[in-house]
Write a structure and sequence with these properties.
By secondary structure, this protein is mostly beta strands. It is built from 1 helix and 9 strands; from the N terminus they run E-E-E-E-E-H-E-E-E-E.
């Protein structure tokens, strides 16, 4: 998934076991990029499992997480021109990519299609349920 404001940039799908960096693109939107180059957004599908490393101390305190976490990529419901790309931590907190620190890294651990047992349907959250610092 790529947030609406990253549609201005070239994009490509995420690949399993590749490492990405969360960066602020020129549009101001946070998104994943391969390496340090912010000219191509990497789109991670909903329900993909990611391993995040380098989670900043402020984010850790705000959301009760550690410096390294396994998360599930999600897309929150919102209005037109609203950021929607988010991650769900194991403690249940759903956090927009916009609220995470630039420079953290992410590796795709598994895509939904890679998992042998998927339980439950994808849950869509309203903006009122959104956790945003």
């Amino acid at each position: 998934m790529c947030d609406y404001s990253l549609e201005l940039y070239r994009s490509r799908p995420a690949v399993s076991e590749e490492r990405y960096t969360l960066q602020r693109f020129a549009s101001g939107t946070m998104g994943f990029a391969a390496g340090q180059n912010c000219d191509t957004a990497v789109c991670v599908p909903a329900d993909a499992r990611l391993r995040l490393e380098g989670i900043g101390e402020a984010v850790q305190r705000s959301f009760g997480v550690g410096p390294i976490e396994e998360v599930v990529m999600t897309r929150l419901e919102g209005g037109v021109h609203a950021h929607r790309d988010a991650v769900k931590f194991s403690n249940g907190r759903e956090v927009l990519l916009q609220s995470l620190n630039p420079g953290l890294t992410a590796e795709v651990v598994a895509f939904t299609s890679d998992l042998t047992a998927v339980t439950g349907a994808q849950i869509r959250r309203s903006m009122a349920e959104l956790v945003d610092a």
